[in-house]
Amino acid sequence: MIKAIIVEDEFNALNTLDKLIRYTQKDIEVVAKIDNVQEAIAFLKKRTPDLVFLDIELIDGNAFQILEALDSIAFKIIFITAYDEFAIKAIKFDTIDYILKPIDSDELSACLDRFRVAYEKDQVYKNALDKVAKINEREVQKTLLIKTADAQYFLQIKDIVRCQSDGAYTVFHTVDKKIMSARNLKYYENILSEHTFVRVHQSHLVNIKYIKTISGNNSVWLTNDEEIPVATRKKSYLKQVLDSL
Q1: What pLDDT, in 10s, does the model give residues 24-69?
Q2: CA atoms within 13 A on the CB side of 77
Q3: 99, 78 in Cβ contact below 8 A?
Q4: For 97-124, b where at least 16 C-beta lie within 10 A, e where not — what string?
């Protein structure tokens, strides 16, 4: 459930917006309704909603005084205003959109559809951050046992550059050798996703520590100067993971 607050000092506008959200936006819960600058600042310093509906002009000041009083802004903003000239100033904040009074149901729905696109991208980014944090916070498996047709190898996970699918087999590319395992890539993805590995392509699982750059033609260059293809749907996620490091 998306947590939202409304900061609005006009009763009719607040009541209309609250009812529209309650009856037409089933995935959004309004957790607070505030009508002044000071209470909004106090609330947002203690709690972080996903979305803030923020009236530009309030009884004791304006929206920008609230935002400038915060150390950081970890929520999305939809401004509520009767004056669209405020939109230019709003650009410097993490603003999804603004809606004009009187509030129209169709305009609100379109605005929230745009918000959801950005919100879903943020969730992917947060999940990537959580994954990296877990790696840093706890001791994880250091080695991986690879069984081949004629031997067994204990690979240091930090030395695995990438894994490549070869039908039902997986080829491990390490910093100093190549080894073919009789297990498929999906099996190793389930193990190595707990580390710094990302499935960038149907055939490739890459240790992001060895990525040098993301190319414009849907590929990545590794530190060993290999070029690995990246699926289009994976490119945005990969950038978010790399940015989180």
Answers
A1: 999 999 999 999 999 999 999 999 999 999 998 899 998 889 989 9
A2: 23
A3: yes
A4: bbbebebeeeebeebbeebbeebeebee
